[in-house]
Amino acid sequence: LGRDIPKQWFPGTGEVQVIGLDTPLERLLLQALQGGGGLEPGLADRLLAQTQEALARQEMLGAPPVLLVNHALRPLLSRFLRRSLNQLVVLSNMELSDNRNIRMTATIGGK
């Protein structure tokens, strides 16, 4: 089932246009997850705001509303972000076929 989910968002075999996380933010989120703590409120607010901006960019590009993340972060980010952004699809990097070209059209973090 895991590899079938992305097919509705990325039919065919062409390039996959996704929103991504910058590396420092991804590391910070992984540390928070491993430490068992939640997201710091300021970080959570910035993450939500930047994701909203990235979704608007995806819409302007005609690209799917997909955030591609590390597989360990998928459940946490999906639950957190979909409360406010129900159109967002959070996928794991492990759910995409290995032979797809991935292009980050927007990056969350770094601000």
TrEMBL record:
<dbReference type="InterPro" id="IPR001712">
    <property type="entry name" value="T3SS_FHIPEP"/>
</dbReference>
<dbReference type="InterPro" id="IPR042196">
    <property type="entry name" value="FHIPEP_4"/>
</dbReference>
<dbReference type="Pfam" id="PF00771">
    <property type="entry name" value="FHIPEP"/>
</dbReference>
<protein>
    <submittedName>
        <fullName>Flagellar biosynthesis protein FlhA</fullName>
    </submittedName>
</protein>
<dbReference type="GO" id="GO:0044780">
    <property type="term" value="P:bacterial-type flagellum assembly"/>
</dbReference>
<keyword id="KW-0966">Cell projection</keyword>
<dbReference type="GO" id="GO:0009306">
    <property type="term" value="P:protein secretion"/>
</dbReference>
<dbReference type="GO" id="GO:0005886">
    <property type="term" value="C:plasma membrane"/>
</dbReference>
<keyword id="KW-0282">Flagellum</keyword>
<keyword id="KW-0969">Cilium</keyword>
